[in-house]
Amino acid sequence: MNISNILVVGGGIMGRGIAYAAAVKGFDVTLTDISSDVIEGARSEIASFVEQGVNRGKIDPDEGKEVQSRVTYTTDLQKGAESADFVIEAVPEKLEIKKQVMETLDRVVDKNVILATNTSTMSPTEIGSFTKRPENVIAMHFFNPVPKMKLVEIIRGLETSDETAEITEAVARMMGKETVVVNEFPGFVTSRISCLVGNEAFNMLMEGVGTPEEIDKAIELGLNYPMGPFKLGDIVGLDTRLRNLEYLHETLGERFRPSPLLRKYVKAGRLGKKTGKGVYDYTSTEQVSETLTK
Ligand SMILES: NC(=O)c1ccc[n+]([C@@H]2O[C@H](COP(=O)([O-])OP(=O)(O)OC[C@H]3O[C@@H](n4cnc5c(N)ncnc54)[C@H](O)[C@@H]3O)[C@@H](O)[C@H]2O)c1
Fold it and tell me: Rounded mean pLDDT of 41-65?
């Protein structure tokens, strides 16, 4: 196995983190998105990840320049596809988008190349069925923020070959990550638990059990979670959280019914850190909640 060129499709929160984590470990990366604004945002965020690494003494300045030069940015998917020997898809959690992207990748990327999907909840078996190479399709679930989070949860679809699972695990390790390989079921291990806790927190907020600060503090200090559910939800993106819950509600039933209050936040455009406001307000220096409770 000789993997040196990774194509990352989707330059949003996850795609840019994955691109950076791969480039830091020496991979050449092409990052592609349909939006040139997103591509420019990714370029400047990756530059700021490098700068933070240099400031913390984790990367020396010359190495920092090399990391940046290893990432190519483009809105032309075809460009990165020709040289790719491993692909990680990080487009939105919507089946029709995943389908369209996987069908395109299947056409333009060499047929032996693995197509890994960074889905949070969806079936790698179904995503694999959109291609003519289901044995080379697998879910590679990274966590946010990618540069900091240690785990990659790897999920085999029905047709995923042993070789694909082994290579994907090796790539994740080469990116400096720990891995678990689990069997497919909606939400896998981590999203299923995280969605349940995050949704219940919104129900508690709606019921007036406590403020976001109080609920987060109770979960952090009482249950020893490193981060409360609202802080985490704001990082994940409340729209992404809602889409994941809708999928789990559809596949696993009532206990995943999205909280009406979560829907209200999404309708208001309060999607979390990425829009400046979610449950908490990130537009002022102090992080305070301005709570919608009903
Ligand atoms: N946000 C998280 O915390 C998190 C964690 C783990 C996994 N995920 C999963 O990662 C995936 C991406 O999530 P995200 O939070 O980065 O979303 P995001 O909305 O921040 O980014 C998705 C990007 O994909 C781009 N895109 C849309 N259609 C495209 C296409 N046809 N070709 C290329 N790019 C296209 C969009 O322009 C956008 O920039 C989802 O499947 C999500 O469930 C998210």
Answer: 94
CB-ligand 1 contact for 88 (6 Å cutoff): no
Q: Domain residues of the chain, as ranges?
A: 5-183, 190-289
Long-range contacts of 272-279 (CB under 8 A, 24+ apart): 272/233, 272/234, 272/235, 272/236, 272/237, 272/238, 273/234, 273/235, 273/237, 274/13, 274/237, 278/230, 278/233, 278/234, 278/238, 279/205, 279/212, 279/230, 279/233, 279/234, 279/238
Question: pLDDT tens digits, residue range 57-68?
Answer: 989 999 999 999
To the question of domain 5-183 being in CATH 3.40.190.10, the answer is no
Q: Is 38 in the pocket of ligand 1 (CB under 6 A)?
A: yes
The predicted model scores a pTM of 0.90
Check if 191 has its Cβ closer than 6 Å to any atom of ligand 1.
no
CA of 222 to the centre of ligand 1 (A): 33
- The pLDDT score that the predictor gives to residue 292 is 74
Q: Options 3.90.600.10, 3.40.190.10, 1.10.1040.50, 1.10.150.240; which CATH number does 190-289 get?
A: 1.10.1040.50
- Mean pLDDT value across the chain: 95
